[in-house]
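Input/output pair, single chain:
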Amino acid sequence: MFPYIGGPYYIIFGICQLLCIVHALKTGRRDWLYLLIFLPVVGAAAYFIREILPTLRSGDSMEGVSAFLFPNGRINELERQLKISDTEANRLNLAKEYEKQHKYDKALELTFSCLKGIYVKDSGIMQDVARLSFHTNQFEQSINYYTRVLAIKQRFDKPEDELIFARAIEGKGDTEKAEEEYKRIIRVHHSMEARYYYGMMLKKLNRSDEARQQFQSIQDEKDLHPQYVKRLNARWISLSKRELN
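Output:
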């Protein structure tokens, strides 16, 4: 796994890589597997920062460690709470945990069930429904709810949702509108992730030279950032480099 690392470091990094791979498989984060297997040191570091560290930092330290070692433990507890008291708050808490575990169908079903009564026009719940609809490939429904949120708030709470909105538009087949959204996100947020997905869309449209420009821009930009930014974007740096080879 680590041909250039010897001695005890080989064992340590091997264990770290294995733990990250097992965690990715258990929590449905399979899109990380390529990076974890073929770029183990960089991949494990990026995975730890993006996926594990936020869990360890949430709540007290022992709870964070428990969530990492037993990722389904929190779900089991929230499912138990919902059986005891079927409230919107308990449904949303469980739905968010399902989403963390990439169990999007279950998360969407629970979240959607909360859009009623006093919450029927809740922009936060609508935004969750829009995001989860995208992850279950219901692109038109995703766009519909994102549009409702924009009508209420004129903006999204997170840049993540801006990018998912663009990807939903692309998924529906409106590549012209998706291109506008990708360009706006890149201009405003300087997002390497947005550049990667924009490049992939251009590639599908057989605009190969333009696609390569996006992938190359990621490679050119990476050296302008401090190390922690490169670690956070390791996935997009790696995938764009693969597209250039």
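The first helix runs from residue 7 to 26. Residues 1-5 have pLDDT under 50 and may be disordered.
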